[in-house]
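Researcher: Go.
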Amino acid sequence: MSALPASLLTSFALFTYAHDQSIKHLGKVRQTIYLLGFFFSLYTISVGFIGENVNILWASSINSETFLFIFKIPVELVRITSAISISICVLFIIKEFDIEKRLRTKETEALYVRSFEHKKTASLLHDVVLQHLFAINLKIDEHSKKHHENTTELTEAKSSIQHVMHDIRNYLNSPIVRHVSIQELQNELQTCVLKQKQKFKDIEYSFTINSLLFGHQNTTRLDHIKHILNECVENAIRHSNATKISVKISVENNNLFIIISDNGHGISKQTQNGYGIISIQHRIKMCDGEIHQDSTSKGTTYEIQIPWLWEAI
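Model: Structure:
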């Protein structure tokens, strides 16, 4: 009985921890911690409150014989079942946290590779591409002054070059990975659809997104998701001649689900082997995701599943 208050406090701590936002992305672990708290409470009650003919608190009226008479099962069976269940829950939680640790290690290794590639690409852009664009811009200026020409074509060419140089400088100054809030993710995806609406004005869109999301994503994964969304929508318009497109985005069981459906005439085998589909599959693979495609003469549906990397800052 002396350990009873501490045992009850432990049960309460387990239920409280299962409610903690820091493990909200670990759905199965949270459920298991709830179960662990339940079985721990059950074991505590069966040991602390139900005695063997002992005249202490509830044990004076609820002993093992009374328990057997009321519930038709021996209290020892409850204790054994609870103890076994506690062990199973603990083993499962250890296993899941080990998987989570390995995933984090994998992400860290991938981040190192991306960092190396980013530096190599940045060096190429700065030392080669940016310098060539700068030289071309100077030649356009010299040509305009020498021949007293300032045509619309030259002005547009110079403006385009300056725009590209500006984008390159932004890329060089941007961090390799930046955490993106859920609101930013929603805004980015909505912007993607809005751009498609402006690009293909005759297309009818419907767009829904689950707003009950938590955590943060990094920019690398966000870029992949944006390109996947754009590519799927453009495939529906260019290759299926769709006039209606539906985009649904939600998060369930620690997975991001993107469902894109259209009313086009389907995708040909040639298109399925084209660069667009290959690009989608490559990006989904980079996100450790899956894609299922169902294409008929009445339309095409993409069902994309990507693990939701919940990241706190």
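Model: The domain at 179-307 is CATH 3.30.565.10 (Heat Shock Protein 90).
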